[in-house]
Please model this.
Amino acid sequence: MAGGKLTPRQKMINLMYLIFIAMLALNMSKEVLTAFGILNTKIEGSNLITDTRNESSFQQLAQKATDQPGQYGDKKVKVEKIRAVSKDFSDYIENIKTEITKKFPKDKEGNYPCEQMDKSDAIDNMFYTGDKESAKGKAFLEKIQGYAGKIKAIGGSSIAEVEMLKIEKRFATDPIYSAKAEAKLPWLDYNYHHFPLIASLTKLTQLQADIKATESDVMTGMFQSDLVAAASLTAYQAIVVPDKSAFFQGEAVTGKIILGKFDPTLKAKSVIVNGSSIKAESGQAKFSFGAGAVGEHDITGSFNFDENNKVVSLPIKGNYVVVPRPNTANISADKMNVVYRGLPNPMTISFAGITDDKVSASATGLTKGAKPGQYNLNPGSGVDVMVSVTGKLPDGKPVSDKKLFRIKNIPAPAGAIGGSSGISKGAKSRLEVSQITAKLEDFLYDLTFQVTQFTFKAQGQAAVVVNGDRVNAQCKAAMARASRGDQITISDIKTKIVGVSASLKIQTASPAIYEIQ
Model:
């Protein structure tokens, strides 16, 4: 203002101007105080929302820990400890806020009388003794400085390094440069010394917001680490999935290659395979059941998990092919593929890997037996017979094969007297009661021959033709004239096979000789 001697009127004008400036300054101060109050109210409201969100996130983690304790159990324990440390710190700050605002109760709308909270006495008297930090001030700093360290000690490797650095920076209490003082000031001085109460209250509320944000970041980071690990390609492996578990020679091998992940911490509630429940362990389930008949079979079922109090079922679908067990070698003599005329030669006909209902065989005289793969071949005229076989593979493609067999007549049996073939000796009385028989020595088939006729010839006497299989009265009369050492020949032995068609032509059996003793 201008110097010199002023008139009373000018002095009055100058005084009014000073009063006006003071009023402007006073109004500005009140607006700032009110602004702090509004900010404090908004931060408190935001803290309530964060509390609700944190509780919801923790409940989700707790549910996952119940469903999959191997994967989430340890994280739940760590988060519980971190929440306890955070609550203790936040409650400590709340007690400070209660103490410094006990003279300034909120109104019915929940607002502080901000314009009255322009002094710094309450916070200064708590944190300082004169210009030095008080015991409460030092305790307040120690609480802030120790919080990040406790979080790191509890979380360990579950908290990413970059996330931990952010938390440590959030609660750092290093000296701060002040432009007004043109020097670095202690953190407590810079933030709380000689500040209006409403400003200090807002900063304390913001500190509570930082605590709740840290709690939220830790839980989000733990979930995020699982997502990152799950999404990382290093967690996957290439899995070859053939369309079936057995292929035939010359057939195209088909299937697909997929990316899959094995998680040993994942535990299923139950696993059902082909209608049976099997035990699940370490992210997998091992099954065992009978292979079943030759051919293609399906594997079906489900992997069942608990998730958010609901059962999530993952379908199981696969197949496999059963082929005959190679317990015998395929050894054959190419010149010995023989079947006998007039006999039901048994055969086993099959295709490896194909069920009997998809195999058919054909040949002259071939009929199917009662059991799978069982056939009988009864060849007629000719010197050989071709057996043709067709089948349908599991993929629908046809296959065929054939084999030629030589046809042979049944060899002539050997005549026998009383079960003895060739030359036998004995008394006349023995021959009189002995049965004339015929048999095949070392033949593949167990055939029973019945003698229908033979010729009896005693040495030096006329031959006697006998119908049946025992000597008659004429034969006995001839034997009565025979002497010791004479031989009796049983020849022209005609037979029939018991149980086989009577039209079957059988060669005459070889003779049998009996020497009288």
Remarks:
- DSSP finds nine helices and 27 strands in the chain.
- Confidence is low (pLDDT under 50) at residues 17-28, 227-233.
- The longest helix spans residues 8-67.
- The two ends are 176 Å apart (CA to CA).
